[in-house]
């Protein structure tokens, strides 16, 4: 259960969030846009990966997805109907630079111009993610994130986007979840580009962070004032302190420390030593990576439960985690098999504010997949509503504990392409019928609308 404590509830007896708390929803380009070949968009690593037999459920691809590229006015209207303050979306790099470098594709820029204008017309604040996993394939052909030059291309792309949208977009996040890009993409291979080379995954992680730092420099030089990065973070639950520290290092501190402290954690450097000599870290890199940021985006879904077990092989997504087992949690599960443990969000937020003080936090993703059914034009997604309610209570408990939490963006606005799961897993508060593209707000959306209106539960 989330942390239970008696609050000094205000007038109407609800949990009130701070004045100005930002309520919104989040999506990502490859997961919702479709139009994979429209208007000059080039191929990304996810176009390639989803076409690789066996990589994505039933061979699903993002070719059409939610057809958001064409239906964005309707989707913005839905955001307005829900009363959302903000909308977090990512920009498709290959739509802007089909080969990952060189002059921008004007038709790609035009789409995001139109989207931002539509949002502004609806009084909805855009929150841009520059990179949500859809690397231009041409850059992957040159090594992708294992190639240091990709970091430089990313900063050039960031500057292009700021020059086009900076007059209307105030909040910019550079990367979504570099942990997933590096360790799902290059170590375990369960995400694009599907490489199973743990020995290069740490270089990929570093170049992603270098790209973040160079992009922060470029954005700041161009006048951006609200810049951040989004990390997927998880508290680690264990009866074994050593096992917990190993996974905390490989999941959380490997990114938090370079970005917010300007150093890699020594224990992680040592454990990764069996894969790499870290020679990809050049003088000055960590100063660039730890450029000051204004906001830390936190994606939270559940804690990690681990235990020490002699002889246990490394978990492929955590290179260097030999001796650690992942037994799973004794808790209700979502359709992804992820445990529902809202208390983990409170623990995480309080830990961040204690260990990495001074950086305001925003929950950039939190949500759940459940098997939804449309009945008489409605979706009674009680499980998702309960998950969101519990996690908002957990977030409120963190605020009560003094955490500087600025907002909450539910994952996701729409059912969408759930990466290797394809379309079979639904995270949206709005149901999408992929045959007709009909949108149906679920009960969770109607409940969330009331939360936003009341600024509380
Ligand atoms: C393990 O959870 C990760 O933090 C995570 C979960 N999720 C994410 N990251 C990604 O940012 C989204 O694109 C996914 O659609 C979403 C749901 O899977």
From TrEMBL:
EC identifiers of the protein: 3.2.1.21
Active site location: 177 (proton donor), 365 (nucleophile)
Keyword S-adenosyl-L-methionine attached: no
GO cellular component assignments: cytosol
Pfam family, one: Glyco_hydro_1
GO molecular function ontology, one term from the record: beta-glucosidase activity
GO BP field: cellulose catabolic process
UniProt entry tagged with the keyword Transcription: no
Keywords noted in UniProt: Carbohydrate metabolism, Cellulose degradation, Glycosidase, Hydrolase, Polysaccharide degradation
EC primary class: hydrolase
Residue sites binding substrate per the record: 31, 132, 176, 301, 411, 418-419
UniProt catalytic activity: Hydrolysis of terminal, non-reducing beta-D-glucosyl residues with release of beta-D-glucose
Gene3D superfamilies according to UniProt: Glycosidases
Family: Belongs to the glycosyl hydrolase 1 family.
Entry protein name: Beta-glucosidase
The species this protein was found in: Streptosporangium subroseum
